[in-house]
Amino acid sequence: MILDSIQNGFIEQFVAPFLPSKSLFYLYLGSALLISTLTYIWFSYREEANRPDGISKGLWGYIFDKDVWLHRSARQDYIFFVVNALIYHGILAHFLISGHVAFGAIDNGLVFFFGVRTQPFFEPSLATTIAYTTAVILAVDFAIYLTHYIQHKFPPLWHFHSVHHSAEVLNVITVFRQHPVDLFFTGTFIVVLSQLAFAGFTYMTMVKPTEILILNVNVVLFGFFLFGYNLRHSHIWLAYPAIVSHILISPAQHQTHHSVDPKHFDRNFGFIFAFWDWLFGTLYVPRGFEKLEFGICREEPNPYETLSEIYILPFKRAWVELNSSEVRIRSVVAIAASAIVGICLVLFAFAN
């Protein structure tokens, strides 16, 4: 089962343009191309100081700028995409199992604390479907915000996350430039919180909840993918009005997150929604076009020279961090807390 999942997932990575559940689905790429064209037209009428440098290269040169798409960092992205596909879907196979464990644990926990339901709190209806559709996307989005915040603030995890930030140019494949440890960490939180929503609604309605779907994709996620998701990792500047930027993360906001400018450090951790950043004081809203440089920092934008370094160097640097007394104490506390939560989940999962 697991090997089949890995094999099928690996193949899916390369037929993604035909799968609506993938960010590289042709409809999402097509909409990104259309939006890019509109931004080109918009900036063509702006003063040179307030527009991207690539505008002078014409529409084709602006969107498919060879200085971006053929950059050494971009070539790393392409290689990493291929090699990481197998590892990535091996991790996903793990989540197929952990999802069932998480649901069982949460479901048994609800029964333990609140008793066995004999009647539903709410009858399944359009309202509960809308509520669950909203709840599950909020759960996933908050999981991504929370793990992203931790990855930046906890030094050992930062070294794994720095692989993603080491991109010196951004393109649609850069999103896959993630260390397996990063993927595992974020994925675990997503599984637990999304299963919390699923188990909670199952408990309250006594039937498995359903989402509002478009092409078998959560309607909110579908809209997010359709309206500019693939520009988040790109050189195409697309900013939203300030009021919208407090609710939704624009591609420009995520691009500033990748900036080497210290004023952008540890800002805009959100995936879909910006209100997490607003709520926790990590929001940055651009007031106009900003010319950005990307990388980890100005002094060392990309320390990874080879593919092996991308995988191995973060472990070495994380180990050095763990050997410092302050970080070691925080690590022991974090590991102990994780172990306790994990043990509780397993016990509840198999309680019946």
Automatic annotation (TrEMBL):
Keywords: Lipid metabolism, Membrane, Oxidoreductase, Transmembrane, Transmembrane helix
Compartment(s): Endomembrane system
Pfam family, one: FA_hydroxylase
Annotated transmembrane regions: 25-43, 78-106, 126-146, 183-206, 212-231, 332-351
Domain (Fatty acid hydroxylase): residue spans on this chain: 135-282
Any one GO molecular-function label of the UniProt entry: glyceryl-ether monooxygenase activity
GO cellular component, one term: endomembrane system
Main localization, broad class: membrane
GO annotation terms (biological process): lipid biosynthetic process; membrane lipid metabolic process
Annotated membrane topology: Multi-pass membrane protein
Name this polypeptide is given: Fatty acid hydroxylase superfamily protein
Organism: Boseongicola aestuarii
